[in-house]
Structures are given as C-alpha cells and as structure tokens.
Amino acid sequence: MKNKSEWLKPSLIWKVFGIAFFVYLFFGFMLLPCLNTITQIFTAKNAAGEIDPLAVIKFFFAGNMPSYVWNSLKLAICLVITVNVVGISIVLLTEYFEIKGAKVLRLGYMTTLIYSGVALVTGYLFLYDSDGMLTTWLVKVFPGMNKEWFSGFNAVLFTMTFACTSNHMLFLRNAIRGIDYNTVEAARNMGAKPFKVLLKVVFPTLIPTMFSLTVMTFITGLCAMSAPTLLGYDSINPEIVRLAGSSVADEAFPQARAALLSIILALFTIVLLTVLSSYERKGHYLSVSKTKAKLVKQKINNPVANVLAHIYAYVLFIIYMTPVVMIVVFAFQNYPAIRSKTLNLGDWTLVNFFGQQDYEYLTNRGKYKTRVGSISGLFANSDTVGGIRLSFVLSALAAALACVIVVIAVNYIFKNKGKKRSTVLEYSLLFPWLLPTILICYSYRTYFNSNDVWYVFNTNLYWMENVRFLIVMAYTVVKLPFALRMVKAAFYAIDDELEEAAKNLGASPLVTFLRVKLPIVLPSVLAVFALNFNALFTEYDMSATFHSSYGKSYAMVIQNMCAEEGRDGYNINASGRRCASTVFIMIVSGIILYLVYGVGARDLGERLAIREKRRKRVEKIKAKFTGKKTNNAA
User: What is the pTM of this model?
Assistant: First the structure.
C-alpha cells in the first residue's frame, strides 16, 4: 500500500493526469464518433417514420450505391497494376540499369513529391481538359476528335497512375540501393543473363517492399477523392462528401447512406492491413552476405532493348514533366494567354503572384467596361491569402500536436516495455490507420455537429469558427500512426547506457528526457513535423468534408475560385492564381523535402565536414579583406 505522501508525488499526479487525458481524447475523438457513424446505419427511419435497422441496407441493394463501391474497387485494382508497372520501371531505369541522363530522369520522376492532390490534377487538366493545350492542338489535327476525352475512369486512372509513383521513388528506390551487389555478381558469374538476374535475384529481395506498396496503392485508389471529384468519376469518397452535405428533404436518409459507404471503406482497409501485417510477420526476406557491396548499374547489352529502354524512359519523363513545365511557364503569363492556353514568350508578368490589373470586357450592348483591380495575384487576393494563412496555421498546429503526443507516448512505451499498458497505448495510436480518412472526418462532422455532445461540454464544434478546432483534431488524429512509426524508429537509436548514466548523476526522468533523449530524436521529430505539414498544407480530401465558410483551406479556396471563374464578373484570373499557387506549393514542398531528405539525411560526419568546409571558406574571404594568411593546418 502506498502512503499519502507517495500518492501526492508530482510525478504520479502527472502520470494519472496524462493517462486520464489520453483516455478522454481516445474515446472522444477516435472511438465515439466512429461508433456514432455505425449507429446511424441501423437507426434510419423508413417511409412510415419508423426505425428500420435494415432500411439503409435494403436501399443499398435496391439503388445505385453498389456502383460507387464497384467503381472504387475497379479503380483500386487497375491502379495496382498500372502504378506498379510504371513505378517499378522508373526505379529500375534510374537505379538499376545504366541509362543516359539518369539523374535528370530521376528529377522528373520525383516531381510528384513536390505537388500532389488538387495541384497535380489541375496540372493535367491544364493540358488535357476540353480546352486544354494538348487537347486544343489535337482537335486542330483531328477535327472529329471528342474534346471531352479526358474525363471519367480513364482520366482518373491516367492521372493517378503517375501521381501515385511517389512511394516507389521513396521506398522501392531505397530497397534497390540496399541490394547486395555480391549476389548479383555471383549470379552473373554463373552465366545468368541480366534479365534473369533481375527476375531471380533482385525481385525476390524487393517482394516485401513491393507488397507494402501494392497495399498502399490499393487503399489510395479505394479512397481517392480529388481526382474523381475534379475529373467526374463516381467513386465512394466524393459520394460520401455529397451525401454528408445533403438532407432528408433532398433524398432518402443521406447521412445513413454516407455512414454505410464509410463503413464499407473501413472494412476494406482493415482487411488489407490485416493481410499486410500477417505477411510481414512471416518474414519473407532473403539473407545476404555480411559485407555488402554497393550496387553497380547494369548495362543493357542488347542494342534494340537498350534503345527501347531509353525511348520508354524519356517518354515517361515527358509525361511527368510537361504538366510541371506548362504550369510554371503559364504562372508568368497574363490573363488572356492563360484563358486561351496560348504561350506568348514576349509577354511575361508577375501579376499572377503580386499586384492587380484592370479587366476590360465587352458587354452585350457592344460597349467596353472596366473592372478596376479585378485581376489580382495570389498574394494580392484576400481570399487566397486568407486560405494560405488558415491552412498554414491549422497544418502547423496539427503537425506539431501530433509530434508532441507521439514523442510523449513513445517515451512512455519505451519506459514500460513488455507491459500491457504500453501495448494498449501503441495500438490506440495506430487505431486511425484502420480507418479511411473520410470515415474519421465524416464521423467528426456528424457527431460534433450538435449541442448535445456531453463529451465536449455541449459545444457544437462544427459551428462557425469552431470547425477550425475540429479540422486540427482530424488532421492530428490522421497523422498519429505515421508519426508513431517514424518517432519510434528514432527512439531505438538511443543507447540505454546514456539514460542510466543520467540517472546515476541524479537527473530526474523529466530532465533525462529533455536533455538526453529529446536532442537525439529531435532531427527525426522535426522531419516528421515537416512531412506532416507538407501533406496537410495542400490537403483537399478532409477539407472538402469539413467545407464551410469558416473552414476554407487553401486547396478549397483555389478550387472554388476556378469553378466560379468569370461568373458575374468575379474571380477573374482564378486560373492564373491556380498556376501561381501550384508553383508556390512546389517551392514550399521542395524546401521542406530538401531539409528532410537533403540536410536532415546527413550523418554527423557529413555535417562536421560541411561545417569545417564552411569555416575555411569564411576564413578565406576574411583573409582577402584583411590581408592575413589563413591557418588551415588543423
């Protein structure tokens, strides 16, 4: 039994408070909203006004809802094939085979890392839409061509095939670069041909990574939102968002139907993640030699195959780079050039970024009228600036909150290794991975859109400015699993002897954490913060679910402007601002990725060498002005 003084210890009080607060957050912002969504399915009322547990399910089979499920399944299955074919091939072309210009090709293939979602889809629309540059040119060459060819399933599949290869360039590339060249060389010495070596030696070592990428791609296709919405394809997520904003006066029990579709998505996700976990536990990995040799790129000896590989590589490069180049170029063109999709190299402007211009237009009576300052740039338009500011603040808060929660939780997990409470905590933080993002957001929207939720003191969190708090919580919850996996990996690098030494010196657990553990894991924590912020800043799917005048994110502002461009004389030059927005997103994402994978990926030796090089350069510059000789003997 603990005496009274032991119960009043500050450390124990903080521990009890922390556990109670975490339980409150878990039940209030993870479990209860999702349970509320499930109950909506079985509490819907039929035409007679009576509660019928099977009403929604009957409607599901009688209506067109199965078509949305099938469309999402079809997209996911096709994406698994196309993304893996393109993703594996671009990694092999840049990392395994000897291809001329591989470094340039790699940069082109990695452009999807710096712009995605709405920005990427609009880039493809700029080229292939009914009035897009490429479509306009093709119609001139082939007058009978259908101008609406880039829409529906084919357009979504094409766009997402190239958008979803980012994970291959990150994870599969690292897996190939980690292959032991000794095994490849041994197979070659035994007379195996290059492509047989690839199939029999290289691919088996990549199977775990490829399997994980396949599951991720399937879930991405299943839960696709921005591409189906913008390209006109009826899939599950856009339908959930549409039903969430509908009412009983418009159609039969829309909220319950949205809930059912969300649960169907969740079931698919849970099954896939269960299969992935069971596959990983089997440990399908090949052993390699203890002393690894760096992989040497393989030559394609067959001249025909070599030429075809180069042609294929550069065709893919053109597909990846054309939208990027066109968006960047037209970001510096004036409004008439953007509207007509005609490039005028002699007329460059910064109006899409800064400043304003007057807009002249011809009325129905044949008279010219002028709207003063109606053509405005990205940073001169109050709506876009407001969207940038809101997205920046909400994304930064959510990314920071996720990091703080995870760092504290992981520290607790490592201090209580092997105990049930640490296992429960870890699985609780991984819980959002079992659910599609749209289910979490929809559950928040319906559960907290009421004054009767006692868990949040009867406050309607969907009302007016309160929705911003709800968005931050949704952002945070969705990013917790990723943050946990990354930060937990960083904690493994902490030597237990350091903590033991701090304890022997009389340091308290809090001081040990702040002065010993945190500095070691801080680079990884900052990397997680940067990546989460990068993903949330341009996020569209969750923003569409929480859409309101008080919660308009950056992506939603741009999308709404382009949808209403020129209507009643408003939102003039929205296309120009969208081009400028994409360039701005590329710059922000590029800087963050450089800080994470460039500067952040350097080990201690590299950092010290760069610091020393910088010091010598500064001394040399000083010597030029002072006339003193530098002493670099050290």
Answer: 0.80
